[in-house]
Design a protein that fits this description.
6 helices; alpha+beta; elongated; 4-stranded antiparallel β-sheet; about 15% strand; about 325 residues
Length: about 325
Amino acid sequence: RLMRAKIATQKAIAALVPTLTAGGPFPHYNKAIAFSGFVIQKQDQFGAAGTFAMPLFDARTIPYIQKSFRVEEGAAEAAAFTGTELAVTTARAYFAVLAGEERLRVAEQAVLTVKEYVTGIEHQVAGGQAIPLALRRVKIDLVRAERDRELAELAVKSAVEALSFLTGVTGPFRVETPPLPKVPQTSPDALIATAFAGRADVKALLLDIAAARKAIQEVRFGLFPSLSLVGNMKLSEATGFAGDVGSWNLTVNLGWTIFDGGQRYLDVKLRQSELREAELRERRLRRDIGREVRVALNDLKGAEAALKASRDEKALAEENDAAVRARVA
C-alpha cells in the first residue's frame, strides 16, 4: 500500500510537468501533386511532427496533489502500525513460551513428587500402615500428573513453533524472563488520551479523513476552467506554396466544463459518503482503543493479583510437600 501511495504521489506531481511527443510519418500516396513548381504532395515523402503541451492552470491539481500526500503519509503510518502489531504478537508468543516452560517445569516436578508419594505409600501398604485404596488413589494422581506433563510439552512445542515463525529463527533458541513491567501510575482516561495521540493506526485514519476531504475539494474545483499551452512543429518534404520544409504554432487552450449532466454533483456525493465512512471508522476506532486500554489495565491488575496468589500457593505447597514427605517417610 505504501509503494502504491508513493507512485500515486509521483503521478500527481507529474501532471504539472510538460509533455513532449514526436512522430515520423512516411506515407505513400497514389500520385504526386505539384502546381506551378510548388510541391504540394510527393508520392513518397518523409515527415516529422512534434507536440509540446504544458498545463498552465488546473484548479483540481492542487487538492489532488495534497490528497496524494495525505494518502502516502497515511500508508506510512499504517505500515508503522503493522510493525507494532507484529511486535505485540511476537511479545505474546514470547511470553507464551515462558509461561509454557514454567508450566512444564511445574508438571515435571509434580510427576516426580507423585512418584515419590507412590513409593512411600507402597512401603506403607507393604508394612500394613496404609490400605491398598490409598495406593490406588495416588496412582490415579500419577496418571493425571503425567497427562498434565504431556499437555504442557505440547503447549511449549506449539508456542516455540509460533515464536520461531514470527521471528524467523529456525535453530534452537532460549528465552529469558524479562523484568516485570511497571504499572502506569495514571488514570485510564490519561492513558486513552496518550493512545489517541500516539498510535499509528489513529494517525493513519486521520490522514485518510484529510485525504477524503481533499478528494471532495478536487471534484468541486472542477467547476473552474483549465488553461494549457500547446506547441506543434511539423517537417515535411512537401513544402507547399510557402516553400518551407518546416512550420510551427503555439496555442493557448481554455477548457471549461459548464454542464456535465450532473456527473460532478454525483462525484461530490460519492466522496462525501466516503468521508462519512472514514469518520465513522475513526469514531469506532477511538471507542475500541478506549475499551482495549481499560481491558489491558484490568488484565495487568489481574496478573499482579495472580502473581501474588501464585507466590502464596507456592509457599503453602512447599509446606504441604514437607509435611507429606514426613508422613510417608
